[in-house]
Model the fold of this input.
Amino acid sequence: MLEPLVVFVFGLIIGSFCNVVIYRLPTGESIIRPGSHCRLCSAPLRPWDNIPLLSYLLLRGRCRSCKGRISLRYPCVELACGALYVLLWYKFGLNILFVIYALLTSTLLVVALIDLDHKIIPNTITLPGILLGLGLSLWALPITPLASLIGLVAGGLFFYLVAVVSKGGMGGGDIKLIAMIGAFLGWQGAFFTILTGALMGSVVGVGLMLLGKKGRKDKVPFGPFLSFGAIVFTLVGHDLIRWYIGLMS
Done:
């Protein structure tokens, strides 16, 4: 059982880097320099205070220098990334597909939290992601280049039409995000993501209105729901589709 443990630890490390991207990319900061530091007092983190998950527990969620509280999001992102990597390992094993979908899943996690915080989905993530998905469909992904292209165009065009009809109800970032997802997952993955995202978004939106957290006219970022739908499809999408077809037959 050493292999899943190694995968989990690797996921924690990548999750730690994802935290850096989530907090720095929207503000235009470099994701490389300066090194990790406390966001409250700017004190550089010592190597032993920057161990994913473990350091947070040992420090009891507080900065060693200023004793300020460290956001619980840091270990949660690391833990989520580690857990997702283990699930991907269980489904695909250690191979090129694991590497590709680990990259996609990590990217979707970053996109979801940036959109949640800032209501934006950076082009610096989605546009290279679209090209990468198309390129990987030529030799590594379990979909054809045509399926990748159809997923990209169909998903993006559908959201573009929604944006036109709703007069701004759908953002350009969402259009490019679903295009990227379609490039990686094909047309089936794109529409599964849209349906799952819409369902989850409706449930959460209604729940927030019932709790008085949001009004009917308040916008809820859609990126987190699209990211959730794409991750679900990556892990169990084809199984769910086969199960549904079996029910209908």
